[in-house]
Each structure stands twice: as C-alpha cells, then as structure tokens.
C-alpha cells in the first residue's frame, strides 16, 4: 500500500506544527521548509482545519497551529481521513468491480486483513510519537531558529534536483 501525497503532506504539516508547539506557522513557511507546493498545502490545511486538527488564525500575523495536543492525534485516524480510497485491488469496490474471479479467490480477504493490520499499527501511535526526535527535526526544518542544519541534511526550502 502506498499513501497518497495528500496523506504524506498532511502528516508533514502536523509534524511541523507539532515542532512549533503553540506558535503560529504559515503555509508558505511550511512549504519552504519541506520544498513542496503551497497550493497542495493549502488544500491539506483546509482539510486539517475542517477535521478540527488545525486551528487557523486570519489576518496579519495569522497562521495555523495544532488544535489538539500531539498525544491526542492518532495517526490511524488521520490516515483514514485522508486516504480517499482503501480499495487495494478492483474487487474491493463491488460497485465498479469487473473481476472475473471475484468470490472464487481469497485475495480480497487477505488484503483486507492486511489493510486492517496496517491501520491497527497506526492506531497505536500518535503525533507525539512522531515528535520524539523534536530537536533533530527542528534543526532540519527550522535551521534559522537553531543555527545550521546538521551535516548531511538538506537546508530548508531546497528542492531535491530532478534526475
């Protein structure tokens, strides 16, 4: 299973806001730190605000911050809310499935069990667990606040060159 970019960016925004604590952060700041599109992040932040995970503050000096404590943000719940479809194979969606062997094989059952196990593992972790290396994350994502980034890390805002 591969998470969508939407889920990936959602988790990254939550990590960034978790590092900031209660301080406000802007979409531009987060986009620069990760080297990703502001437009994509705008959609992610809107979703996070709608879900009650992020509080937004409008106006000059505005931004966003976590709306809940990091230990209350369960990763499994977050990923379930951001993954549009958990149909790993065609037969997971009976409305559109045209699989000829549906019902005669066990693939749907096995993959369904694997998907449930995946979410069960994520349900055992919170955003606080992702923030355990807070000092290192802060040095990588916010080098201006902590001095220079650690050796071997990419400075914030620099995109990886395409090959």
UniProtKB/TrEMBL annotation:
<dbReference type="GO" id="GO:0005829">
    <property type="term" value="C:cytosol"/>
</dbReference>
<dbReference type="Pfam" id="PF02082">
    <property type="entry name" value="Rrf2"/>
</dbReference>
<dbReference type="InterPro" id="IPR036388">
    <property type="entry name" value="WH-like_DNA-bd_sf"/>
</dbReference>
<keyword id="KW-0238">DNA-binding</keyword>
<protein>
    <submittedName>
        <fullName>BadM/Rrf2 family transcriptional regulator</fullName>
    </submittedName>
</protein>
<dbReference type="InterPro" id="IPR036390">
    <property type="entry name" value="WH_DNA-bd_sf"/>
</dbReference>
<dbReference type="GO" id="GO:0003677">
    <property type="term" value="F:DNA binding"/>
</dbReference>
<dbReference type="InterPro" id="IPR000944">
    <property type="entry name" value="Tscrpt_reg_Rrf2"/>
</dbReference>
<dbReference type="GO" id="GO:0003700">
    <property type="term" value="F:DNA-binding transcription factor activity"/>
</dbReference>
């Amino acid at each position: 299973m591969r998470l969508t970019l939407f889920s990936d960016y959602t988790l990254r925004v939550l990590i960034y806001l978790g590092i900031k604590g209660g301080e406000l952060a802007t979409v531009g700041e987060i986009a620069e730190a990760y080297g990703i599109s502001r437009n994509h992040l705008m959609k992610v932040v809107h979703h996070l605000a709608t879900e009650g995970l992020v509080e937004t503050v409008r106006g000059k000096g505005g931004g966003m911050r976590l709306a809940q404590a990091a230990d209350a943000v369960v990763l499994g719940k977050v990923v379930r809310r951001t993954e549009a479809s958990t149909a790993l194979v065609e037969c997971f969606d009976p409305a559109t499935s045209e699989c000829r062997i549906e019902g005669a094989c066990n693939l749907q059952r096995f993959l369904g069990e694997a998907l449930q196990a995946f979410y069960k593992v994520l349900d055992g972790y919170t955003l606080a667990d992702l923030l355990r290396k807070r000092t290192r994350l802060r040095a990588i994502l916010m080098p201006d606040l902590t001095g220079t980034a650690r050796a071997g890390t990419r400075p914030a805002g620099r995109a990886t060159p395409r090959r």
